[in-house]
């Protein structure tokens, strides 16, 4: 839990960029005290792995300096490209050591990598379920070394979908979120990410990087097509209660209107992001045009505050 550090820095690493935010918990509210966004040169991050550590350290130094050097405890969001996630049914055994053995057997079967090269973690969810995340161990090891080199401490690592869930919980508080199918759509110029949760459990979280999303295809048409494919894949077409939230650099009211008309569901545009999530921000902090790119980092920085 967050009790040792005065601020938490959320770090979102994608193939072409990183985003950092620093949050401080003040009584019953959350205050944004720093934010930064840095572009990444091609090849530095591929399939979620930090391939060029020297360049990555340099970019992180610049990002942390722009952040105002607040919050040395870092919560890292691992992108969908680098992690396998799945929602587990209630475990068979009541004791922790038995559950760990059960999950180890499951990881051995599911991991595409040798067990010695695999990192896995699970977190408890509602109704006895658990969220299992699997990735290559060197993804975590490389990030830990890079952060340590520039004086930062990797406090927690989690799959990107966990950040998405925190954002949705911050947006729709109360029991409604655990009774509905809730969807987060992130639309950037170089990335489309969709996460779907049903009654509090993860159904699917994935990202696509289409070459033509921002050029030859209308963004709204592309998003509708991919979202419908996702609904078809997980079989939620019969679900009547859906809530959809949209954010990102290409998220706009016209896209929300198209999604609402197509899927007959209320659609919320997360803009301005911090205002809708009921966060205050430092008076000296100007987010300018980077706020739409901060969503995943914000969700990670909420670790320890709302789950």
Question: SSE layout and pairings?
Answer:
Blueprint: E1 8-13, E2 17-26, E3 29-39, E4 45-46, E5 49-50, H1 53-67, E6 73-78, E7 83-88, H2 96-110, E8 118-124, E9 130-136, H3 137-149, E10 153-159, H4 160-171, E11 181-188, E12 191-198, E13 201-208, H5 219-234, E14 242-247, H6 253-263, E15 267-269, H7 273-276, E16 279-281, H8 295-301
Parallel strand pairs: 1-6, 3-16, 6-10, 11-14, 14-15
Antiparallel strand pairs: 1-2, 2-3, 4-5, 7-9, 8-9, 11-12, 12-13
Helix pairs in contact: 1-3, 4-8, 5-6
Question: Overview of this structure, please?
Answer:
The protein is an alpha/beta fold and 307 residues long. The chain has a domain at 174-272: Nucleotidyltransferase, domain 5 (2-Layer Sandwich). 30% of the residues lie in helices and 33% in strands. The strands form 4 sheets. The protein has a 6-stranded mixed sheet with strand order 10-6-1-2-3-16. Strands 13-12-11-14-15 form a 5-stranded mixed sheet, with helices on both faces. Strand 12 (191-198) and strand 13 (201-208) form a beta hairpin. The radius of gyration is 19 Å and the shape is globular. Residues 1-5 have low confidence and may be disordered.
